[in-house]
Amino acid sequence: MTARVQDQQAFLAALRHQALTPSTLLRTSNLLPLVRRELITDLPYNALPSLGLAYARVPQARVTHAYIDIASGLVQSGWSSDRQSILLPTTSDGIPALVRRLTHDPALGRMGAGVTVWDGSGTAGLAAGVGTAPRRDGFVVAGVGSTPHAGRTHTVVVRNTLVPGSVDDVTQALGQMLQAPVLARPERGARTPIVVLLGSDTPTAQ
């Protein structure tokens, strides 16, 4: 492990210790504007406190570390457009593959977790593109296509009550993966217990 990595870990440990002190927690409302200004993330800001507390409760023995550096072969040296020295991905799938390995839940691939992905945004190829992520994580993507409910603005994950199966927890996991709400209702025309209805709020649809 390089000295730079050790320094980064020491800094994060100190930051975690300070963030969990009572004086810092009481100033959360004052700190949030600074977080919004300085932190770039696609996570909802109101989810960050609970995410931080969840991380704080995880025993260190159960934390898995992976390094994205030149030694790992995941990145290589490069230059930005303004001539800054930066690290660039070595391949297009190396880092996503690492994320899938670290976050993979074997329960997602169990029998009965069949998924239908329907596009309601009118974007050509959207269902096929989005369907690759659940397939990589162990879901059986039984079909992709266009939903009979066209003109959708919001993506939802539906627990199709017309198809039997104990897949409620898997449905919730897929909803979290896609950052979409989960509904339980009959979805006629689908033969799988889980149906994803893609709306225009899907990132690749914009």
Could you explain the architecture of this structure?
It is a single chain. With 206 residues, the protein is of the alpha/beta class. The chain has three domains: 3-62, no CATH class; 69-103, no CATH class; 106-205, 2-Layer Sandwich (Alpha-Beta Plaits). 36% of the residues lie in helices and 18% in strands. The protein has helices spanning 3-19, 22-25, 28-38, 48-57, 94-103, 126-136, 168-178, and strands at residues 75-79, 85-89, 114-119, 140-146, 156-160, 182-185, 194-198. It has a five-stranded mixed beta sheet, covered by helices on one side. The chain has a two-stranded antiparallel sheet with strand order 1-2. A hairpin with a 5-residue loop joins β1 and β2 (85-89). The radius of gyration is 21 Å and the shape is globular.
Give helix and strand order, one letter per element, not per position: HHHHEEHEHEEHEE
Q: N-to-C terminal Cα separation, in Å?
A: 41 Å
| Number of separate structural domains | 3
Write down the overall mean pLDDT.
78
User: In CATH, what is the class of the largest domain?
Assistant: Alpha Beta
Structural class: alpha/beta
Low-confidence stretches: none
Strand runs, count: 7
How do the strands line up in the largest sheet? 4-3-7-5-6
What is the strand content?
15-25%
Percent range of helical residues: 25-40%
> Which fold does the CATH topology of the largest domain refer to?
Alpha-Beta Plaits
Major pleated sheet = 5 strands, mixed
Task: Figure out the total of helices.
Answer: 7
Rg over C-alpha atoms, rounded to the nearest angstrom: 21 Å
CATH architecture of the largest domain: 2-Layer Sandwich
The coarse silhouette is globular
